[in-house]
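Ticket #478: bound-state structure for zinc ion.
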Amino acid sequence: MELVGLPPEFLKSLEKAENDKFKVVLRSHHVSPILELCKVGSTRKSVAVAYGRRCEANLSVLEKLIQLRHKLARLLGYPNYAEYAIDRRMAKSSTKVFEFLEKLSGSLTESASKELSLLKELKRKEEGDPFGIEDLPYYVKKIKEHQFDLDFGVVKQYFPINLVLSGIFKICQDLFGLRFEEVVGSEVWHQDVQLFSVFDLSSGELMGYFYIDIYSREGKYDHTCVVALQNGSWINSTRQIPVALLISQLQKEVDGRPGLLRFSEVVNLLHEFGHVVHHICNRAPFARFSGLRLDPDFVEIPSLILENWCYESSSLKLISGFHEDITKPIDDEICKSLKRWRCSFSALKLKQEILYCLFDQIIHSTENVDMIGLFKHLHSKVMLGLPMLEGTNPASCFPRTAIGYEATCYSRIWSEVFAADIFAMKFHDDISNQNTGIHFRNKVLAPGGAKDPLEILSDFLGREPSIQAFVDSKAHSV
Ligand SMILES: [Zn+2]
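RESOLUTION: The complex was predicted; output attached.
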């Protein structure tokens, strides 16, 4: 009864405890489905509380880490760790990051408030007041399911892997003025691996090579990523050709038929392929600045721009075809729904991400912060008065700020915001315009790490990048 709403296959996957109750482990593959699907508010709340306090011992570790980081930054002449971490990135300073996050959060308030009042209203009808932050995933999912007649199981039928891949190749070749050619008979490490050469369409110059190793198999590295096998550079007037490798874990065949991709996998594949194109089109003279050795605030922007091609009818048709008759592309209604679904009820979730980014930025730019007090204060300030869930300790289980993204959690949103600006300004009205694509290739992809990213983007846009297009895209989130 406590798990009403969860699908039978999920329940079947759970172990049983001695008292015959289901055992839920505090990992996202158990917690997320419960928070999104469980109809029982008290279950969602107790799971959210347990999950939000799962690593309380980490808080003192984090406090120690922060102290040491500040100490190291001071040794290098910086006032605090955030200034050290951001100094050589596109954002330049912690002050700029605060300005960016505050401005973005403020601009999203109107859309987020509309979302919140609809969510509160629905909860009042279904379970009664009050609405808590732990109710967010369940009610967002419920409202979106009600608003959209989108069955992702059906959508998947339109994305056979080979067709998606050839569509992605076509989009990138046509847009950026490139030509890909398979190198047949090349020496590879597994029969599934393919090697392609990349030529400039007009001059015929060999620009680079890429391998694709996209099917899952036993013992293979299990992440999806692009690896730079060789960076481009000039050595005594001879060009060293860049070589990239795209690794993924897709199902090659299911029951003797070509594998089908989930829509999120299609978006992800195009995103990763964007990194391959970026790697090969980067013409920086030194290997240190070419390939994907770029400012981390900048490196994701081109791939995030390309993701938009998955949400426009004309390009979506190039990468889709019904699996039993690939001449039948995905229909216009589904394309439109996917585009609206992408932005629907996204403002409040974004504010939640901004809250974590602000927390990360404050603890890395101030000494001796009361972390629990700070999180409580920020939560209600950023999340439109919604309090932090009582009994949780989110500061202690926020891995991005502990290792890997310390003082730079903002970077993901930063890249999304400026990618939205470029897409809206340059590509939105004509996504297959090769002149714009080649201009982008020359102005944005080619300079690589040899030019300041802000200059690169300003040069291409004809003005400084702005947050407006991103904010506008969330204006109709309800
Ligand atoms: Zn990426």
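RESOLUTION NOTES: Residues 94-126 form the longest helix (33 residues).
TICKET STATUS: resolved
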